[in-house]
Amino acid sequence: MAFGKNKGIYKTPAELRLMVQPGLVTAASLTAVREAIRPGITTLELDAVADRTIRSLGGISNFQLVPGYRHTVCTSVNDDIVHGIPGGRMLEPGDIVSIDSGAEVDGWNGDSAITIVLDDPSRPEEVAARRLLSEVTEQSMWHGIARLASARHLNEVGEAIEEFVEEHPSTRQGAVYGILTDYVGHGIGRSMHEAPPVFNYRVRQRGPEVKPGLVVAIEPMITAGTTETFTRDDEWTVASADGSMASHWEHSVAVHADGIWVLTSPDGGAAALAPLGVTPVPIP
Ligand code: MG
Ligand code: MG
After folding, report:
1. Which residues, given as ranges, of the chain have pLDDT below 70?
2. Domain for residue 165, yes or no?
3. Which ligand is nearest to the CA of 197?
4. Fewest Cβ atoms nearer than 10 Å: which of 141, 143, 198, 209?
């Protein structure tokens, strides 16, 4: 059949309800990391904070189910973009840190990432540029999520993300942003990574139909420079080829009969989506 590849990507209403709890546990783990992060803490300590939170809420880390990966989160610092392995690295003032976390509860998954820029009063301009990069990346994600609410086909999401970055005032003033094309978002459900791919940029294909039961992780990865990447010697960490700083934001979002709901945000995305004219609806 022509549509064989995306067959079975749509969840039933009962399955969507099972994805609420893993989303909330994933969100809680990132809230805990946000509260703990400061200069002097190691990325391994942040990993422990996330792990404790997920376990205390009855979940398990789904990253630990990825073959060869033994940690609960990925921590990507400065020019590391994604898949950074927690370790002894001590965070420093001014660092831009992306934390990617995921929880599995009763066999269903959540996946979400945030970026945090630590303060450094000694170099305000660099900190401001890093905060802007994170803000543009986060807002591009919310514009992608907002588009999902009215999209007919999934690949409109990437169009909205790219459009937002292109039209951002700082882009018009000469700021350079590279939207990664080597890595993309994905469907999510019983597995953390499922079909279909979710592009963060325009593509020729329209992608699968957006209809109730679709659950996707939308996760733009953006550098303040090139889209070219390389993998470090640890064979996990993906870094920007030109050393430019990077940001990564991600949410898992469900489409259901009455609207969309951001599973990995405690308010379903209401606060961030309100300025974009979208009101998320809890999964019935
Ligand atoms: Mg993730
Ligand atoms: Mg993901």
Report:
1. 1-7
2. yes
3. 2
4. 209
